[in-house]
Amino acid sequence: MSRERVEEARRRFSRRHLRRCGADGKPLYLTIEGTAAYFGVAKHAVLEWIKLGMVPEYHLGGRIYLNREEILQYWSMFQTRR
Question: What pLDDT was estimated at residue 62?
Fold first, then answer.
């Protein structure tokens, strides 16, 4: 995803996005804690992904949310390198 598209998506993120579900019926946007639990990694690992710019984060009401599908793309790239 280009940097411009990421910035545009961040600006347009709203509470209605939090209600969206993926094709499997599970929530599309997860908190840092939810992301760590979903992928079975430590919370600091998710924070490191954000810090390194590997996954875009979305801010709403002082909380950080991550798009599960974007994380899955990163996760699949990581798994193939092992």
Answer: 85
